[in-house]
Amino acid sequence: xxxxxxxxxxxxxxGLVIFFAIFCGSSIYCMFDxxxxxxxxxxxxxxxxxxxxxxxxxxxxxxxxxxxxxCHLIYDKKKYSQWIIRLYYLWGVSILIYFCIAGYVFNYVxxxxxxxxxxxxxxxxxxxxxxxxxxxxxxxxxxxxILKDMQKLKExxxxxx
Length: 161
Known about the structure:
Layout: H1 3-39, H2 44-76, H3 82-112, H4 121-129, H5 133-160
């Protein structure tokens, strides 16, 4: 392995770590901000709005971390393992769990929002139900390519052994 490829891989790994540190820091900050807004809410709508944003940020952060970990294992580490398959299953199950939690949160919101704020239920539903939609929709376009790359890695590892 040449020195340039080692330094290139090291720089890309450092860049990925910095990106995830910034992303995780901003996600945690947003979740703490939403939690603080829930604590000082003066009306039911303010509380429910902060709860919807909190749920959206938590789902977005978790799905982004799982997708980032899958991409890191395939493209940076360039190793095929059973962990990648398990992370795909975790990603799918996490999406189902998120929608179950989002349904409960939205039912809670519908029951606790005052009558004068009923017109704002559409925006709350959009936040809580479509929060991680980027990863869900993007997954349908990206997952086939990732699976193809994973199959190539598996074949390369079988040839080297």
